[in-house]
Amino acid sequence: MASTPDGRTPTGGLVSASAGQSSAAAKVVQFVPLGAVAVLLLDAVTDFFPDDPITGVLTPTRLVLLLGLTAMAVPAPGRPRARLRDFRTRLDIPVGLLLAASVLATYGGGHPTAPLRGLLTVIACYYLVVGLRRTQSESWRAVGLLALAGVAAAGTSAFSQFTNDTPTGFCRTGLLTDIACDAGGDDVLIRATGTFANPNLLAAFLVLLLPFTLLAAVAVDERTARTAIVVLGVIGYGAMLTTFSRAGYVAAAAGLLVLGAAYWFVPRIADRTGRRLVAGVGLGGLLAAAAAIWLASRAGNSLGVRGQAWRAALDIAPHNPLGVGLGRSGAVITATAPGDRVFVHAHNLWLNWLVETGPLGLLAIGAVTVIAWTSAARAARAKSVVGTVGLAALTGFFLMSMLDHPANLDRIDVLFWCVVAVVMAEAPRSWRRGAELPAGTVPAPQKRRRHAPAAPEPAGLTNRFTLPPNLPDRP
Predict the structure, then answer these.
(1) Could you tell me the pTM of the whole model?
(2) pLDDT tens, position by position, 408-437
(3) Contacts of 420 (CB under 8 A, 6+ apart)
């Protein structure tokens, strides 16, 4: 009930103290999941949490996860608790297969269980973000602002390293060729690492989060605030240039092309056949690139270190139907590949899962890839901002993951699954025709026709973004 500043209701009575306390408790419980997601994303950017467990296997990250999931499940006065359907997505079966393949690889081979616990942690992050997006429809604004904060933190750190010639241990020269940093010379370029261990990880981070800064721009109405957000986005793309990552450049350019196509090109295709053709060409391009990688891996050392890793991975897989165990691909590939090169992973997301968890794991991660990408494409086609930026982020990241495996790092893995969660929470829960859309779907920008009367503007959104008129507050 509304009350005046002196604590009285409009009818003159006093507001009950217990009612006020219940309302305050409900608000605290409501914002705990959002606070948990904020802490997890910022930790993925800056790594401020220690890796040592608090007790047993309970690390600070897992404690935050438990608090977020518990707060979402606990009923509070004035706020309904999350239901099981709020966590259901089209990826439930592939995620279950991925966990099953990982359990078989871990216990079947008698390997340590720490990597399996790490996988369970990132999957829990996935469902926490899905539940948050489904139960709090306005949380897309927070996602955009958190992405902007992460880009600003990592991007400004990278610029500081580049402009001040801070040694990072990674340098390039000429046509982006690697060189020892102590070689000296005016043409030696320091590769910025930002808040990560190497420039390729920074590039992967920026590829994932830079498209989401568009959500931050949509979340504000004031023009100068939006200008500041655009400036931070430009800094993020400038930080991408300081990494001198060839795969990062291609992936970032692909993300920008997707954003541009979703804004200008796709809306002009009126018929469904044309849109399906565009989506098919994009998916076919990914499959063609995967086939090219397989053929290149059979061509000796034509692709250098990556070719050696791919060839070794394809040689290992037939002899290990259950996989070699989570986190062990680097050591096994090092022992198999010729030379004394030390590998950390297979330099390819899907080959790495094949080596570590066998064909079942490859099937599961392949399904995750296809379903997540196609769901983002469908949401973008439905003029959803979240779908559009998710499609740009996933397209760039998957392209980069064909030549590298940045998700091998836990922090990048958390970010990847959080991006997938934001996309899948925007999609219907099942493949049934006519399945309901979750609440809070944010449409993508559409150009108004000249001389057309302006539609009424919903509160909190810019005049280029409108919400569907009949979406419920809850799914």
Answers:
(1) 0.82
(2) 999 999 999 999 999 999 888 776 655 555
(3) 91, 126, 368, 372, 394
